Target: Glutamate-ammonia-ligase adenylyltransferase
Amino acid sequence: MKTAPKWLKVFPFIETQWECIVQLLDRYPEIDVYDINNDWDHFVRANQQSDQFALLRQFRKSRLAFLAYVDFQLPLSEHIKTMHRVTVLAEHLISQAYLMAVSDMQQRFGKVLDAQKNVVDLQIFALGKLGTQELNYSSDVDLVFVYPEYGESNGKRTLDAESYFTRLGQKIIKLLDYFSPDGLVYRVDMRLRPFGSAGSLVCSEKSLVQYLVNEGRDWERFAWMRARLICGNSASAQSLLSELKSFIYRKHLDYQVFSSLAKIKKNIASVYPSNTRNLKHGLGGIRTIEFIIQSLQLVFGGRDAKLQGVSIYPMFEHLVNEKKMPVGDGELLKSTWVWLRKLENMSQIINDESIHELPENEEAQIAFATINNHASWESLEAMMGAQRGAVDDLFIQLFNDSNQDESLTQADEQLMQQLLDQINFQRVPKDTVQKAKKLLELTVVKAAPEVCHDFVQIIKVLLKRPSYLLMLLREHNVHNNVLKLLAAHTYFKKVLLDYPVLFEQLFEHQPFEPLNHDKLSGMWSARQLGAQTLDDVENWMEQLRYFKLVNQFNLMRSISVGEITPKQLGVQLTLLAEFIIFKVCDQCWNELHTKHSDVKIVAEDLMVLAYGSMAVYDMSITSDLDLVFIIDQPNYDAEERVFVHKWVKRILHHLGSQMYHGLLYEIDLQLRPNGRSGSLVTTKSEFEKYQRTQAWTWEHAAMVKSRLVSGCDAQKQWHQILRQNVLIQKRDPLKVSSDLKEMSGKLQLLKGDGAHHKDFAVLAAVLIHAHQYPELVMIDDMQELNNRLGELGLLEP
Model:
């Protein structure tokens, strides 16, 4: 038999299993080919005289020793694989205990059946390190027992579901946690179930969700983000975990997490001094690193599904890739975490004890240094101390929400008092009041008085969103950007007051990239994450409104910092509106077509004609949409006509309904044939006939600024030809001038200003002179058209 290395005497637990280790090394010379199911079957056949307790315990001890010994030969980067293998070992043993207990229960009480006579199984959820698949060598296992729904067993002796699964759970725990002559398999910790030790051993899915949603505390959010099914019905469990995501992750940036985790860390620090040798709880230790990762996941995970993973290790890379952590910080945390986990596991495997301290005897220290490729114990300690110190510095940066006191001048103090007088702090929590006052103090020092008065209105709204107050206090760049935006445009005050969720865009700012249909489509698809649009139409409408708000906000921010010009802003806002119209038309057709699948009308049959600013790519943040709906079906029957009218009404409902995130656009339909008395939808032939024979002068003038924004190439060509033919007709100049001046006067009375006079002069010039200069109707930019008319001397002074 292969001789054990001399240093192995430092690890008595492994040394006692040496004979089994040698046999396993012969059977599995490469650890990557180790097959636990095959190994278990072989082990059971070789130990047929052993009872269940002995099988489970002896298998765990020998296989854990084998995995630990092999890990000593592997580089540090491979230790994460060892943690995964140790997790698989634990899952296998828990599954075997589960099967043993189930077999015994079914012999005595039968199976649990629901009302439909379907079999109901117990689900075992792993939390903690077992949940993350990064289990320690000698660790408790955090389990929660859940059953999908109520039922009753079908044996000779019947039990209700709760009683049945309670007995089953007790059997599983005894098989794992009972201390026999062979020791135990795992210490089972059930305290993460609802109401902890005071609660029932098992609970239904419904009661679990109800408890967490209504009574769950912050630490339970942290615990359940690491939950994973290891036994039971996977489909039912996935549905449960999906339902719990809204409890774990918030849709907004959840900065309150920092405060909660900081309190937990402070409590731990009071028990474990910073100079401790404790690898888990000491300064810059394992728990500190996991706090950093967990906090960033909870803050951003509600808005970024890539950060909702159960395991710790992949999150280092994900957080860096998602720009939530600098590359250097991610590498430091990952390398330190893996190394500390290996040192912790080495300490535990000495005597199979759940300890977190480094060894104190010299012989063990020399072995630790050698296995970790250090010349001496002092070298190992020095490197570990440096890395843990760097980790602690990162933690302090992340969790320290204090700001240096700013010195206020007398004028600042007077302004500060004026601002405070505007806020009613009654019934506001004390810590929220402190955050608001500190934020105001910082604002008074940085911003002009008029900006401070705008900002205090925002603070009044944020008193109900303390996590945003904390974000503004912690993220100085975000606070500074808010003040700059308030000074730049009145839009920002209104939109931030109405929709505080947009503060998150300031944190996630990306350099301007021009929008187009493909870009917007990709952004929309990423946001939807495969959501079923017909299952929850109201949610879809809210999502589209939020999508519009975010893009408008980012465009306005881009122009305020000089990234784009006013002309570019008009184009970008127009492209955004076109995309939204496209999505709404398609969505509404799908909504109706599911109920009227026999109708032959297809989504491509509807054309949307835009007038005004949208037609000439000159929309502003307050622009409404002047639209006409045209159907490309010359001979559609009464049923199809009803369908099309319902379709357009549904589109108008989607566009104009006021919801939580506002409306999409105000819609003006007065430019359709016969205006308000006309049909909501017109056919191509009807529209063309009206424009050629019945339209008023001002309706022809409106066609100068018209464009088909939804339609195929052939439909767009039809409109362009019609538009050109209408506009190049020879007209009476006096009548054109008279008619448009009359309309201009009506608009002035209606709107109270004469801002449109110049625009009407351009439109009149086109109608009067287009028959001589047909090139005019080819120009779709109003400034360019104005310049060309000036060059030709066709504009009235």
Summary: The mean pLDDT is 89.
